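chain below, 399 aa
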Amino acid sequence: MTEVFKGNFTQQEPIPEEGIEAAVAVMRSGRLHRYNVLPDEEGEVATLEREFAEAMGVPYCLAVASGGYALACALRALGVKPGEPVLTNAFTLAPVPGSIASIGAVPVFVEVTEALTIDIDDVAAKARATGAKVLMLSHMRGHLCDMDQLMAVCDGLGVQVIEDCAHTMGARWNGRLSGTDGIIGCYSTQTYKHMNSGEGGLLVTRDPEVMARAVMLSGSYMLYSKHTAAPGAEAFAEIRYETPNVSGRMDHLRAAILRPQLARLSEQCERWNERYRAVEAGIRGTTGLTVVERPEVEYYVGSSIQFLLLDWASAKVQEVVARCAARGVELKWFGAGEPVGFTSRYDSWRYAPSERMAKSDRILGGILDMRLPLTFSLEDCAQIARIIRAEVGAVHQAA
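prediction:
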């Protein structure tokens, strides 16, 4: 009998009871705006910023309305100007180049490797060719490149790195938390990320001038003294007059929901990795399927899993996707000619024109992607792997 998976790939776990209680308390107070606090009260947003900064091992943190806002705010805080080239991954999601285009800068796409990470040699080549001084590094789908090598290359070329950690909150390279190697780390708390407030974002840095600009950009008016994970008043002395207000603050309601999730982030990361490893073990060795190997120095967070059907005809990849879907397994393909749902690629973003990238096209054409929500059991993951293995094998054998 052919088994069919009955689970839901978009169903997340409920918000922890402590978060629900804290959110209700905020609603009962009526004071949702981050600066609407009682005398001597820190407030949920400022407390979240302080706790997140401590968890990341950095002095400064800013909570904002979304991960995409955090990215654009980071670019502005570094002083990126309209028309300026900004390097970024060819394999990423639309908010990343979108944030660059939103401030009038020009996305310059960098090749992807078979490890699904940015091609560091191409970073160097594109930086030299364009004169770009900023790299918006997308740790796409939780894959960390060799951060030691990347930072050495970027430091040598005078390129500042903004890390898009939407998929790597809690991950580490060589023991260092994702988001703490570059000058700025940006995180998302959208529903499908590692902490869930529906929408939301966080920005961290060790640079007091950068954080002062980010705070002013976020819409602090002259209330920056209410930020407990920000530099002192001296950092704002001139910046407060020079920095535009591009309001994108987080509110107390979302911060209240997030704080209990931050407290259990490490535990949740381990639970995702158990599910990742269960699927990986089940599909490993499937004829025609390439598992993306993870380096020993990378501590990843497996909230999704990707594998490759390299050099397969597009029609055959689509057949695998359709056959798995018929059995309840939702795979997303990055090789489609048209964007579908959340899945698009560099040649879909006509506001950021690029020459064809044959190396990346080959890899994008083979990437299949699947969410692993914590509502799945390990038995669910084993069943999903059996279905993928069977359908990939059937299509490959018939080819």
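The mean pLDDT is 97. The chain has 13 helices and 14 strands.
thats it, cya
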